[in-house]
User: What shape does this take?
Amino acid sequence: MRWIGFLFIGLVIVICVQDVRSQQRGDVTVQTRRAVKAALDFLAKQQNADGSFGANYQLASSALAGLAFLGYGSNYNHGPYRAQIQKLVEYILKIQDAQGYFDDGQCRMHGHGYATLFLAMAYGSMPYEKRKQVKKALQKAVRITARSQSREGGWYYYPAHERFPSQDEGSVTVTQVQALRACRDAGIYVSKSIIDRGQRYIKRSTTSSGTRYHIHGGRTTVTLTAAGVAVMNAYGVYDPRTCIQLKWGLDVLKRAIKSRLSRGGVAMSAVNWPWYGNLYLSQACWQAGDEMWKLYYPTTYKRLLSAQNTDGSWTRTRGGRAYGAVFSTAIAALILEVPMGYLPLFQRAQEPR
Assistant: This one.
């Protein structure tokens, strides 16, 4: 898959084809749509007057909620959640500082990455005048992201790496790489040197044991490995036959899923950060093809549906309590939306783009 922009007509065709194929495989059921709709209705009720969502880690949670609305087919101009998307865009634009950093005082570079990703994904459906405003915001966001890249090619918790020039961390890196990919797909300039340095970084960070916490060492986990695979996919690397690091990552994920299946499921596959971990595990398995997807998704799907609250939210598990119902509900909805394919992020490499 190349880093290219999307023509609107072509995107509509891809969306329709992707959703039909997903339904033919049985990935998108009536129960799936009902669960996602209930989740999005819950999220819509959590929007604050300023356009943000919830009270905990507002920027990251809000951007993830926005992605969940987009992931169900709504956009800036159309769909049942267009009003929420429009208000969220204004909130995110308002909190961008002069340097281009999206900052709510809580979410650090994670929040900046999610906010950039959301704006880039919503950008194509905006009217001309709004696109001009958002384009400038995205250009500034890309510049601060570029300046924040470590010498090794990853990203750390804070912007503008004058403070931490040699530090990077895997859970932050995936948020920046996916945001840059979305920006470039939307026609925003991203320097090739940033991409090349990032590709070297993720390959050096991944071993046969998985993706490390940072390039110079640290632990490997299912969460970091899933994020590492998502980074490689965002850089256009999809074939494990041509990239040993991708093969290592997928092998680690496959072993982890099989191990947890024997203990009753994989919805808690990332024990400490279950929602964050499954957000990237679902994407990695989807892009890897039907074998990995069928290994991961059916059990996760059943566990997600059984854990949904009557108001449409998900709040169970450590991650849900720590970050709030908006965070966990948005991610649960996104996982269920993966096979729908409305977000370019969720379109398989072999599908036309």
In short: The chain has one domain: 8-346. The mean pLDDT is 87. The CA atoms of residues 270 and 278 lie 7 Å apart. Strands lie at 206-207, 210-214, 217-220.
